[in-house]
Design a protein that fits this description.
122 residues, alpha+beta, N-terminal domain of TfIIb, CPE0013-like fold, 3-stranded antiparallel β-sheet, 2 helices, 17% helix, 38% strand, binds iron/sulfur cluster
């Protein structure tokens, strides 16, 4: 079955409106994109949309009550809510180091959640 998706490119500030036609897991046509980077973005967005996730996790005994975290890779869009729910269940104990994995293989995605700042012990 042929499907048409409207996608706004977020690769640069121009924000081209693109129209992507897919059949199954194949791109048939991309309209409205002005460059190769936009075509790549439209292809991923149409066939395998993913998002980088950022959030925060509660820290016990830390100089700050929270540590900011992010996903080590973009998360498949359909798993974003599941991953965010898993992140909300976590509490870590200080010290936490920048780049430290906080949760490995979150929701069996093969993706880790890592700290994006250091929180020292209080
Ligand atoms: S298609 Fe190219 S020019 Fe248009 S918004 Fe995307 S990156 Fe920018």
């Amino acid at each position: 079955m042929t499907e048409r998706k409207d996608i706004t490119c977020i690769v640069c500030p121009i924000g081209c409106k693109m129209f992507v036609t897919t059949k199954g897991k194949k791109i048939q046509h991309i309209d409205g994109c002005k460059c190769k980077r936009g075509a790549e973005y439209a292809t991923y967005e149409a066939l395998d949309p993913r998002r980088m996730l950022t959030s925060s996790v509660i820290v016990q005994d830390g100089e700050w009550p929270l540590v900011s975290v992010k996903s080590s890779q973009p998360v498949p869009k359909e798993q974003v809510f599941t991953v965010l729910k898993e992140i909300k269940k976590i509490t870590v104990t200080a010290p936490v180091n920048l780049g430290q994995p906080i949760l490995k293989n979150v929701a069996r995605t093969g993706i880790d959640i890592v700290a994006t700042k250091t929180v020292k012990k209080r």
